[in-house]
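Notes from hallway chat w/ T.B., transcribed later so I don't forget. T.B. wanted the structure written out for a chain they're using in a teaching module, and asked if we could keep both sequence and structure tokens in one place. Agreed to drop them here.
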Amino acid sequence: MSEPNVSNRLACVCCPDLSPSAGRRGFLAGLGALGALSAAGCATTASNEPHRIDVHHHISPPAWVNALKSAKLDSPPVNNWTPQRSIDDLDRGGVATAITSPTQPAIGFLNARDAADVARASNEYARKLADESRGRFRMFALLPMPHVDATLREIEYALDTLKAEGVAFMTSYNNRYLGNKEFAAVMDELNRRKATAYTHPNDPSCCVNVGIGMPTGLIEWGTDTTRTIADLIFTGTARRCKDVNFIFSHAGGTIGSLTERFLVWIHGQAMMRNRGFDRERVLAELRGFYYDTAQTANPVAMGALSKFIPVSQIVYGTDYPYRTAADHTKGLAEVFSGADLRAIERDNALRILPGMRAARQG
């Protein structure tokens, strides 16, 4: 595979050697150093400095891929992923660091023991990848959900030993969403830790075979994201676990279209009023979540989201390898500018990524 184009590298005296002559190992190390220096505030006069933080960037740990293949759940994007292809995409989109995670269906199809083993191997792979990249990659930990005891053990190991930036959930596991009482111990532990919890949509059990002849990703993934948002709010989990930094993919799915039902229609529901839900409470909880830009970096989706969610809660995400960083960098620049764009592309994420925040302060 050819090395990335480096003709536009930063004109900065503290930048590493990114020339092809540095060799592949040196080249990758140089790219990693560039990400680390950028995170620490390396001064540059170049206008195209890689500074973005991608919170929605998928990788394919070998243990996870093998499990998918055994269950016949693998796909070409999963099978064809490589670290170099990820780095190439980061470079083309001006991204300094990607926070990595596997994608749908995670490992909910495995029994508890196998799920724990695959999660551990995948997280150790992601940690090694992050270390060798020297700043280009960091990690959200794959969890052996819906197996609660195994998940609690992996949260401890991933956050305390591997120093993950947070954890990664699917929006649902069979018919259970993230506010389900069966997952209360997991949410309470994350709340205790004030952890970041990235979420990715899954195939909802209700709607895999609805007979319209279209893949579930076209409609149902966005809707499943909104279902888990509703579940977290209306079970009271969001209020109880207010210190968890939830990130929802794809601008929150269909939340923009359903805002009126969340905020107005619910007011007429006696059951909800009796449980303390009103417009102000629901809006405050919606505004406390984070929403990424993956596959929604366009005026329609961002316009709808930013009408009721402050810019401070929007974070840059790309959904690589299913979309590119360059797509999102270009799309967001057509909607936002100045301080708002910088906040979305980088600054908002720094508030909820402990490892990156520590590196910046150091």
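Follow-up for T.B.: The radius of gyration is 20 Å. Might be a good example for the class.
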